[in-house]
């Protein structure tokens, strides 16, 4: 049941510190904090390319992983939504591997993409939450998310546990490819083991986010911006908002603003900017200034360092824990979930069963 919570979605958001921890414990040695994946039928040292495909929120998890695998593990990744990939007739490299991500393990487009990749001779890996599912059965190896049953139609804890598995996979691939020195590898796995505690801290902002949701609920359109691995978090934030509050929202790579979407900015368009401290911060800060100069109200998700550097200006700021930029996507996913949730509650929608949507999409 929902226990003390008003909706399954809220309960599932609050379960994240625990289920991220459960998922991590299956892949990280608690003493040495070293990543220990099960034996996989893929040699990451020589893998020419990894193809990733999934739908919706699971696709956005894959998009974060593309940033991680390319920059941290130096592994080329190609990624596409399964509904496009399955019909694209993409040539796949000899000796390649393909990874499919699915909470339900039953999504028809993802399954069809998997079967296409198998026909093309790829080794099939999957990340699923339902170990008995058809996608799990048809894979050469399965990396499970231990999110437990997800009842709310809007995916929350499945997403962050997918990211957890993908972060571990990245560190394992980086080790196999000799892409990280030992010190950096140890720092990244240490940062990962601290994510459950930091996720619990993020949840302490729930009331503040609920207050900000009053400003979002009035809007007709909302923009979400991010750079690097925060770009998929912007996409995910926009998806969450539209699917449960029915407010039009778009996620953009912040650097694309000048190429069109900045024309939308006025007093009525809230802009959610996901910008942790790190190498891309100053670029995102410039986008914040551009939005504010045009009268847009900014909701900034950042950390103490970012808040100090931006100064006064954003209408709302949520200060998240300062972490290694590698793990930031796991933490910044949570406030965008809460913002969508509280906005939907204010709008009076059916949060756990939004109109026109099904939990598992088994027909095209
Ligand atoms: C969004 C959402 C959907 C699913 C998508 C894939 O909140 O839940 O976008 O992520 O339908 O579903 P699975 O992961 O079951 O393949």
From TrEMBL:
Domain SIS intervals: 40-179, 212-354
Root EC class: transferase
Subcellular localization(s) per the UniProt record: Cytoplasm
A GO MF label: glutamine-fructose-6-phosphate transaminase (isomerizing) activity
EC id: 2.6.1.16
Reactions catalysed, as given in the entry: D-fructose 6-phosphate + L-glutamine = D-glucosamine 6-phosphate + L-glutamate
Any single biological process term in GO: carbohydrate metabolic process
One Gene Ontology CC term in the entry: cytosol
Keywords noted in UniProt: Aminotransferase, Cytoplasm, Glutamine amidotransferase, Repeat, Transferase
Subunit relationships: Homodimer.
Function text: Catalyzes the first step in hexosamine metabolism, converting fructose-6P into glucosamine-6P using glutamine as a nitrogen source.
UniProt name for this protein: Glutamine--fructose-6-phosphate aminotransferase [isomerizing]
Gene that this polypeptide is encoded by: glmS
